[in-house]
Write a sequence for this structure.
């Protein structure tokens, strides 16, 4: 697990689930559940990534109730403004007090044909607007067979951070495509191996200090039952959780991993 200054981040990617009314109920219950469990928000940061249409409701609730939850968008336009029907600008997300934005999720790379160049432009747009990008990288089962575990994620990272400079705050999510939604998570050792290679790449491109401060998450079939194994790894600083983030009790248990990480 994280040593030194890196605060672990447990992030819930809701994908296209929960409308704005459902999101209010969910966030309220999540806050209660974590409060009941005496969750230490300074020790483990918890963030949710709802659909765009929920963000204003989530912002209002979190601000009104002074909840210690963070949130962000699931995607962002590479453009600041203009004639881009349907796109959402990083500035607008920032105006809703989003702290983060997911960029380059494998579903967007695959189903929406997002290239490394497009992902890099989105990362740059997010940083310019003051958002922390959660840059997703990961190999398919075929990539794994052909190139080994680190080659594709490292290449995606290198391309994605091309427009950034030292000192930038960054979250990288290593999500093997074969592990997403499959129930078949990577092993903690596999996650550590790739996370270490990603951190070395960050150090090479952006300098050691930026690399040491960046948080690297593992994602892909994370559950309460397997989070501890990932969090014991030196270079894994948290998790990007899909399916299990929609199950309140399960997500709350994942966020409380320090209670079972030592067992
Ligand atoms: P999963 O999804 O936890 O359902 O595998 C992870 C993700 O897509 O971010």
């Amino acid at each position: 697990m994280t040593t030194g200054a890196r605060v672990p981040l447990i992030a819930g990617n809701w994908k296209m689930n929960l409308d704005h009314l459902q999101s209010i109920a969910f966030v309220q219950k999540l806050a209660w559940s974590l409060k009941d469990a005496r969750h230490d928000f300074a020790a483990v940061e918890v963030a949710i990534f709802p659909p765009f249409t929920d963000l204003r409701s989530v912002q209002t609730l979190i601000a009104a109730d002074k909840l210690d939850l963070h949130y962000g968008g699931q995607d962002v336009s590479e453009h600041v403004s203009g004639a881009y029907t349907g796109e959402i600008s990083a500035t607008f997300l920032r105006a809703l007090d989003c702290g983060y934005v997911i960029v380059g999720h494998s579903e967007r790379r695959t189903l929406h044909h997002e290239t490394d160049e497009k992902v890099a432009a989105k990362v740059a747009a997010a940083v310019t607007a003051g958002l922390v990008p959660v840059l997703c990288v990961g190999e398919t089962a075929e990539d794994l067979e052909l190139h080994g575990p680190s080659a594709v994620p490292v290449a995606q990272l290198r391309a994605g951070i091309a427009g950034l400079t030292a000192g930038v705050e960054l979250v990288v999510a290593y999500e093997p495509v074969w592990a997403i939604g499959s129930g078949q998570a990577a092993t903690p050792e596999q996650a550590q191996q790739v996370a270490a290679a990603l951190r070395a790449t960050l150090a090479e491109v952006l300098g050691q200090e930026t690399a040491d401060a960046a948080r690297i998450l593992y994602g892909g079939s994370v559950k309460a039952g397997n989070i501890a194994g990932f969090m014991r790894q030196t270079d894994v600083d948290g998790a990007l959780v899909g399916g299990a983030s929609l199950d309140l009790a399960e997500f709350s248990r994942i966020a409380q991993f320090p209670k079972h990480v030592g067992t």
Observations:
- The two ends are 14 Å apart (CA to CA).
- The first helix runs from residue 20 to 36.
